[in-house]
């Protein structure tokens, strides 16, 4: 658990899983991101919002994401936008300071052709 603040009534703790979910949702909103290794395809279907995301909080908060990018997108720009969106979302929702967001691009996905998307098209 990440201790957030000690107050008169006690403290607020934020589970690392919460940071993973916020990070996954933020990354999925970036144009060109089509998957997190470990399951952003499932993330986009909202099955598991934590796969492919690691959260380390020793003295500083580091978030690591492994993504897949759609073919044709400029990878450095997609990675940078993921970093910015994840950092902004986590900081605004938790008031924690994100030290680093590490984005590893582990795959490229190719768009499906109409024929591949429509299995009946081959039989027409």
Structural class designation: alpha+beta
Q: In the CATH hierarchy, what is the class?
A: Alpha Beta
CATH topology: Alpha-Beta Plaits
Percentage of residues in helical conformation: 25-40%
The string of secondary-structure elements, in order, is EEHEHEEHEH
Number of domains: 1
Which word captures the global form? elongated
Average pLDDT rating? 83
Give the CATH H-level superfamily: Cation efflux protein, cytoplasmic domain
Uncertain spans: 39-47
What is the CA–CA distance across the termini?
57 Å
Tell me the major beta sheet. Answer: 4 strands, mixed
Count every helix, treating DSSP H or I runs of 4 or more residues as helices: 4
Task: Give the radius of gyration.
Answer: 17 Å
Family: Belongs to the asp23 family.
Protein name: Asp23/Gls24 family envelope stress response protein
Organism: Paenactinomyces guangxiensis
InterPro entries: Asp23 (IPR005531)
What can you tell me about this protein's structure?
β5 (61-70), α3 and β6 (98-109) form a beta-alpha-beta unit. The protein has helices at 16-28, 40-44, 75-94, 114-117, and strands at residues 2-7, 10-14, 33-36, 53-57, 61-70, 98-109. The model is unreliable at 39-47 (pLDDT under 50). The strands form two sheets. Strands 3, 4, 5 and 6 form a four-stranded mixed β-sheet that branches. It has a single domain (11-110), classed as Alpha-Beta Plaits (2-Layer Sandwich). The protein contains four helices and six strands. 34% of the residues lie in helices and 34% in strands. With 124 residues, it is an alpha+beta fold.
